[in-house]
Specification:
This protein is α+β, with helices and mostly antiparallel strands. The protein has one domain.
């Protein structure tokens, strides 16, 4: 008897980031999902799901660490993919959380959105200092508002 079950290990989706925010110099970014959050969003009188996904951070030689994130809005027909940059992998995740917070806050000005029935989406601003951010090789990075 032969085993017909195919197991795929190490498969990583390659995604095209939004051009305007792509500081990496790469046309495609590896996107291995490490976490997701589902928000409710009202659009044209209907409530649908907005998905926020964080990918595993990776290092880009000479540029620092990247943590890609995706904001998927199936009802709006959009899939927004952006690499957040950091001095190390933890900082890249923090910056992704900070950037997600800013994007969702801006979207909430145009759409009614909620997470678990509240308007706190759970993506906080990044901690740390401007001094630490200045050490990051990613150009124009800031931990300010």
């Amino acid at each position: 008897m032969s085993d017909t079950t195919e197991v795929v290990h190490g498969t990583v989706e390659m995604v095209q980031p939004d051009a305007a925010a792509n500081w990496t110099g790469l046309d495609l970014l590896p996107f291995e999902t490490i976490a997701e959050r589902f928000l409710d969003i009202e659009h044209e009188g209907h409530t649908t799901t907005l998905t926020v996904s964080l990918a595993k951070p990776f290092h880009i030689e000479g540029k620092g660490w990247a943590c890609p994130y995706r904001i998927s809005m199936s009802a709006l027909g959009r899939d927004h993919i952006t690499p957040a940059g950091g001095a190390d992998s933890v900082h890249a995740i923090q910056m992704a959380m900070h950037m997600i917070h800013n994007e969702l806050s801006a979207m909430a000005g145009h759409h009614k959105m909620s997470f678990l029935g509240t308007n706190d989406f759970g993506f906080g601003r990044v901690g740390g200092s401007e001094e630490a951010a200045a050490q990051c090789p990613v150009m124009n990075m800031s931990v300010g508002s």
